[in-house]
Amino acid sequence: MAHGTPKPRVRQAAAAVAALFILLGVLGFVPRVTTGYDDLTFAGHTSGAKLFDLFQVSILHNALHLIFGLAGLVLARSVGGARLFLAGGGAIYLGLWLYGFAIEFSAEHSAANFVPLNGADNWLHLALGFGMLVLGLLLSERAGTGGRLDNPIDRP
Question: Quick check: is 154 in a domain?
Fold first, then answer.
C-alpha cells in the first residue's frame, strides 16, 4: 500500500476489535480490574474472578481473548483477512452465545461450563457476535475484491 493511502475501513475495524480483545485479555489478569483475583482458576465454572466485577473470567478465558486478538491483528493486515476475522469471528461469538445460553438454562455450574461463562458474558457475546458480523459484512467495500461488487443478476 502506497504511503498516504488510507487503510480500508474493514481493516481499521478489524484492528480496533482485535486491540479491544487484547486489552480485555490483559485486563483479566490485573487485580482490582478483575475482582476476586485470588479466586482466578485456570478454567471451569468455579473461577470466582470477574472482569469489571461483571464478567466471569478464568486464565483460559483471558488467554483465549489474547489469542483471538493477536489473530485479529495478523488477519487485519489484508482486506480478506479482516473480513474473515470480523464475519467469521462474529459467527464464532454467536455460536458461543448459543453455547452459553444452553449452559445457563441447563446446568450453569456443570463441567460443560469450562471457559467459564455467566449471564453477563452471554449478553456480551451476543452483542459482539452481531457487531462483528455486521462490521465484516457492511464494511466489505470494493477494495480487495479484484473488481466491482458481485451482483447476482450478472452471474451466468
Answer: no
